[in-house]
Amino acid sequence: MSLIPEFELGLWNAWILVIPMTINFFFDVRAKVARESGDFQLTKKEKIILNAIPLTIIVSFVYAVFLPLQLGTTWLYGGLLIYLFGIILTAVAVLNFASAPKNRLVTKGLYRVTRNPVYVGMLLMQIGIVVACTSWLYLLLTVVLLILLNAILSAEERYCLETYGDAYRKYMSRTPRWIGIPKSEKRG
After folding, report:
1. What is the DSSP string of 118-140?
2. Where are the alpha helices (DSSP H) in the chain?
3. Are 79 and 130 in contact (CB under 8 A)?
4. How far is CA 93 from CA 81, 85, 137, 158, in A?
5. Which of 12, 72, 79, 142 could form a disulfide with 131 if both were Cys (CB 3.0 to 4.6 A apart)?
6. The pLDDT value given to residue 9
């Protein structure tokens, strides 16, 4: 990683890797369900955070257009491995969610390991791009995205607590928000 980021327009740039992540984010089934329910009330701060997330994704995409992949390097192969694991994790999480009965709490599949497998997969994809391109600037964008996602999760969890009540509290007590991070002790 160099202090001065590379900017080079090219066919083999990171934009190729950002497309699936961008599509996944803007068509996230969970977000649509919450917005369409009409019961999802956000505070002013949460609305700002919610609007900052797509902005961060768009900035990541625009930067990725000019961010060359480190072709033929170990960095590229390591990054692609992390990236592919993120895609698989995201796809399985989406299938777990889509196959669950509507208006029921999803606790099967990857949702047993983390309450947010789609976000975990998306962040793994971002980290894979960071490694494949060895870009500190893209790493910074990934950290910003992680902070924003973590901040908006409080609103999502509040919605789930209102919707599913004690079932969600039990789910929170046994399933961590993020993989490898201790379970939440919040009780609503």
Report:
1. HHHHHHHHHHHHHHHHT-HHHHH
2. 15-26, 29-37, 44-65, 74-99, 117-133, 136-164, 166-174
3. yes
4. 18, 12, 28, 21
5. 79
6. 66
